[in-house]
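Give me structure tokens for this 104-residue protein.
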Amino acid sequence: DLARERWNKDKDWIHTGEMLRSIRQDMTIQMIRNAFTVEVCEYCTNTSLLVGDFKVFDQCSSHLEELYADSTVIGTSSNASNLLGYRLLYLTLQGNRLAVSDFL
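Here you go.
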């Protein structure tokens, strides 16, 4: 919630992005894969796309793709189809045929 508040208040992507990166890193190190992980990654994916930070978008959307495919992750959101569509479009625009093939 603090990262969302910071973003909504200041629209400071550098600070907000660092906060989200830190949260994602902590969850990865602690091997946390749950609804909160999905929520953080979805927020990070949407916000990074909004500001045009495609490196972060690629990292977060790739992680989301894994989370959505993992049947043990509880709380997969209703945003999954939209975010996976964004990922497919991104991979296509990057010309990464192998990644698109793997995605499909």
